[in-house]
Task: inverse folding
């Protein structure tokens, strides 16, 4: 069957949001709330092994035993942190602090021109997705996507395949007609669990992770001035500077 749809993760895939985005927003929120917590780049790299902001905080509390306030209880504290951090991160996005990665906008536009459908499957908050897209591409870009599946709309975060399966079920798409774009081990496992082929663009945090099962691993999607670097190609045949729709249609015919 011919390729019909491209489904994108967000954090790390559409934008390199982790090191200078979410981490910074968490640290600012911790300070505002009077918590003696500080997530260094190295520590945050460990926390990224867990998908979902609330889940990540629980992992941090369980593994690193930081000082906890007497009030409120842990569930309320995590909810309060997450709500304020989401607002801080929104402000960063609105101010244009987090650009899209090289080649993302180009591939979006190529896909639409070619009649391919676009979708998003992420465990980040829906508001984060909205502001990342609109701050970089304008309000109208939200309409480029047939579905934006984000946040806590499934019980389990990646590497569970549930968020991808939701997209497939909601749209009535067959996994063999679609292609997932991810940046991490958890993302690969999630997409493969839903039966989707996967292409990876690595980040500084994920470059050493296990991408077994991914069809293609690149440094970036690529643009004429910033070509993609090939890391692995299990299908064979990728020998160009940019990941293009023409390549995708040939590789996934």
Result:
């Amino acid at each position: 069957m011919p390729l019909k749809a491209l489904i994108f993760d967000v954090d790390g895939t559409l934008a390199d949001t982790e090191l200078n985005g979410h981490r910074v927003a968490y640290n600012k929120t911790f300070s505002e709330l009077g918590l003696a917590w500080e997530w260094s780049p190295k520590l945050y790299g460990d926390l990224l092994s867990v998908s979902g902001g609330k889940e990540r905080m629980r992992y941090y509390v369980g593994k690193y035993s930081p000082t906890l306030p007497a009030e409120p209880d842990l569930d309320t504290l995590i909810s309060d942190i997450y709500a304020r951090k989401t607002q801080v991160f929104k402000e960063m996005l609105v101010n244009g602090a987090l650009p899209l990665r090289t080649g993302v906008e180009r591939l979006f536009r190529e896909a639409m021109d070619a009649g391919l459908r676009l979708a998003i499957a992420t465990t980040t908050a829906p508001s984060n997705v909205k502001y990342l897209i609109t701050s970089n591409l304008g309000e109208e870009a939200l309409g480029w996507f047939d579905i934006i599946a984000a946040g806590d709309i499934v019980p389990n975060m990646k590497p569970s395949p549930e968020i991808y399966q939701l997209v497939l079920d909601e749209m009535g798409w067959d996994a063999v007609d679609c292609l997932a774009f991810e940046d991490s081990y958890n993302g690969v496992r999630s997409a493969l669990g839903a039966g989707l082929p996967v292409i990876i663009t690595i980040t500084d945090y994920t470059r050493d992770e296990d991408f077994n099962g991914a069809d293609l691993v690149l440094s970036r999607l690529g643009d004429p001035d910033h070509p993609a670097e090939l890391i692995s190609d299990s299908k064979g045949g990728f020998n160009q500077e940019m990941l293009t729709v023409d390549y995708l249609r040939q590789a996934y015919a």
About this structure: DSSP finds nine helices and seven strands in the chain. The CA atoms of residues 87 and 230 lie 37 Å apart.
